[in-house]
């Protein structure tokens, strides 16, 4: 036991279980126990030293705005996420911040979720790998990560009270594994519980989540922190293992704990356990150290370039011929949408403007607004001017997507459609210029208008402060797109299995689709999406061959040959899926269990090895309350997206 516990009074112990204000823990000066400061920050710091809030409304310190998780997940590059995490930590230390709230690891259950831009993927393996990498990078610099939002927080509607009703199999095979992977592989120093109820019990006082699963099964040793304002019954939270309530809401919750101990409803030992974990956070507080911000903008640019997804490129229109005259259209070209809204909204160091960066690349460009960056309804005069310019040029680049008011923390979307102002511009310009390129900035899938009319589509998601330079480099061939979709893009929202059960009730959300989220549903139901999970084009071509499967300690090794047979450098993401043949239990058609991004020069090849641990073949047995392997035949499917399978092998377990 920590010796300081013996010196603390019960009142002092209880005081340490809630924050001092919006961003600091409390201190006990007589024992030299100081405060630590924390900050929002999944894709950059939102540090506040003045008026504080948790919705991104008040002023914050300037920091580097990296691409959001919806973008960086498409990199399929854990090493990149590790570098981003380390950079964010260095900026945190420059401000004396000891904890950064992130990463966000919730599964993308439905494309309408307003906070999807902060989440990595619909797939738990990819989400877990990238979350663990981000945490390792952050904590390598001594700053604590706070993994969030635990658990089943998959919508914004009524998030403070909604009950996520999830069957046990889906919970353990889909919604918890990414958290488990991050906890066990990266050992975050803290975990943030979510607002919602899970099967009737608030996450902030849920002993199954916070004690049985997180601590006993996964071995988590850090502190559990509430989401801001997520506490319902404070004494019940302490009993369940909620260590720290944030922010400070007044003395009443501290009094609830004190009263519960005095009345024998809560043991002082439970309080001690919570206090000890908070003291450990303070023991690892950082010292304020200077930071060289100059290289972080370049890293943000690299992250945006490696995360961009080329969805379409007919007749190899991209990269652009440098001799082309180009019309640059759309308000986003001059006022880019590069980050999400809400608690992660950052005051960036600098913002690269796509139009200016295209000019800097030496292209013959001219600009017409087409729509104002915050206009939802068409302005016909602006559209006519844009059409007139597009008629004169060899190529038209249309910057479009979702304005900030259409997707944000705090509410869910109501449609997959782009705003009418963007739709009218795309439709009108594509009628007069056959070489129309659409550059998309959005945090989640959208429906593309008349996709046959647009010759190329480059998806930037929310690409951070350097998105403009990255976009210009990708369009001109100075960088080569190699990102792959980390979520399925449906043709229609009705094709999404969870759609009938998403956001229909403020008090209860039934996850009736169970395991069938994203590609797990589309592949199993044989529904063709607009763009499948794992999909993305390049400016070069690759060939995979000679796949071999061999036994290894603790699992199997998949070995194959990958070659760049095109004329440009580029990268390919090798994806390994597991399929159980003739399964006696309900399963998706296949599940991603390994991946590796490989960079190759033209004409080069590489032997790629991926490890499949025995865990990759397990499922959660509800009766046994444990993971099991179903005996029988399996297929190992190696592909370049969830529906493009190149090679297969068949182990028998």
Describe this entry's structure for a reader.
This protein is α/β, with parallel strands linked by helices and 653 residues long. It has three domains: 3-155 and 162-283, TIM Barrel (Alpha-Beta Barrel); 294-489, Rossmann fold (3-Layer(aba) Sandwich); 540-649, Immunoglobulins (Immunoglobulin-like). 27% of the residues lie in helices and 22% in strands. The strands form seven sheets. A six-stranded mixed β-sheet has the order 10-16-15-14-11-13, sandwiched between helices. A five-stranded parallel β-sheet has the order 1-3-4-6-9. Helix 12 crosses helix 16.
Tags for this entry?
single chain; 653 residues; alpha/beta; TIM Barrel; Rossmann fold; Immunoglobulin-like; 6-stranded mixed β-sheet; 5-stranded parallel β-sheet; 17 helices; 27% helix; 22% strand
Layout of strands and helices, then pairs:
Layout: H1 3-7, H2 10-15, E1 38-40, E2 62-63, H3 69-72, H4 78-94, E3 99-104, H5 124-140, E4 144-150, E5 163-165, H6 168-175, H7 177-186, E6 190-193, E7 197-198, E8 201-202, H8 207-217, E9 223-226, H9 234-240, H10 251-262, H11 268-283, H12 294-307, E10 309-313, E11 325-329, E12 347-348, H13 354-360, E13 364-368, H14 380-392, E14 395-401, H15 420-432, E15 436-441, E16 456-459, H16 467-476, E17 508-510, H17 519-525, E18 542-552, E19 555-564, E20 570-580, E21 591-600, E22 605-613, E23 618-621, E24 626-629, E25 634-641, E26 644-649
Parallel strand pairs: 1-3, 2-12, 3-4, 4-6, 5-7, 5-17, 6-9, 11-13, 11-14, 14-15, 15-16
Antiparallel strand pairs: 7-8, 10-16, 18-19, 19-22, 20-21, 20-25, 23-24, 25-26
